[in-house]
Design a protein that fits this description.
It is a single chain. Helix 6 (180-199) crosses helix 10 (292-307), helix 7 packs across helix 9 (263-278) and helix 8 (252-261) runs antiparallel to helix 9. The protein has a 5-stranded parallel beta sheet, with helices on both faces. It has helices spanning 12-24, 35-44, 61-71, 86-94, 108-178, 180-199, 204-216, 252-261, 263-278, 292-307, 315-323, 332-348, and strands at residues 4-8, 28-32, 49-53, 76-81, 100-103. The chain is rod-shaped and about 120 Å long. The chain folds into 2 domains: 4-133, Response regulator (Rossmann fold); 179-348, Orthogonal Bundle (Hypothetical protein af1432). By secondary structure, the chain is an alpha/beta fold.
Length: 349
Amino acid sequence: MHETIMIVDDEPNILNALGRLFRREGFNVITAESGEAGLELIRKNEVAVVISDQRMPGIDGVEFLQRLMAVSPDTIRFMLTGYADMKSVLEAINRGEVYRFITKPWDDEKLKEVVSEALEKYRVAVSSKKLGDAIRGQYLRMLELNQQLGTEIETKTKCIEANFSVFVELCADMSMLHDRCSGEQARRVAALAEKLALKLGVGEADAETIRAAALLQTIGRMAASDEGYVQENEEVSVSARVPHGDHAALSRALLVKMDALNQQVSAIMRSYAESCQRDEYCDLPQGKTVSSGVKIIAVCKAYDGLRHRSRPFSQSEALARIEAERDKKYDSAVIDALAEWVREEESLL
């Protein structure tokens, strides 16, 4: 379907002549004898090109085209003038109301040529606008979908985190049923590890991760026979103790499965098992670093072992034993955090 061309002129002869010219070209042509009538028509029709006379009763061509631009900005605007009123023409062009001006009398072929150019410009503008609207619509839809997806992911993440927390607590309960002493120790170590982690400036989420790793690091014992280990809190000294790396974390197969549940917790547990083999829980001079979770859990476990043996050390004595291993076996920053916590606990007594 061809575009609509509107002709606005107070002279019927000009309306008829231009109307015949463009209808022969297959265009839909509408006409108006005044600017006011033209504005009324433009509100009811999608018009590609307007050809308006400059001098008309009521509003002149410049004002009409200016007001038309506000109603239909994509419409290409021509001004028709039959005298040398170049001041008005230039004013209209400079203000953006006019694409080109046409002098009377006009050349039909040249007029058809410039209108064809204007129509192509109009088609490009309309296509670009439609494409822009489509892109904006798709963008807004994408934002909406992303928001929905983000909400779903957040909900599922919270559900996974909640389920993992339940899983951790369940494993801790199972460990308690298998060996009450070991299970109680795991809970005490986990609680203290979380407190020290927060003192060291670790975020709440990471502190909870360290707590979970501390709770789970003894679960491997459930696969061992009762004779497979010796109570750690009955050993002679911190320096003489040899942690059982084979059951201080889950077996390799269980750790692989743990990766699918929580990689951060699994990484701490795996690193802790490796540190147990060396019996060193601080950064080494050779450049090998130890994660903060491992450093914290190791100090907490050592402290708890000294405080809950058959002949328990006092808080100060246990802290002194661990202090003796500063930067040799245990991390200084963690020991400082433990010392601060011990002082706080003693002040409450």
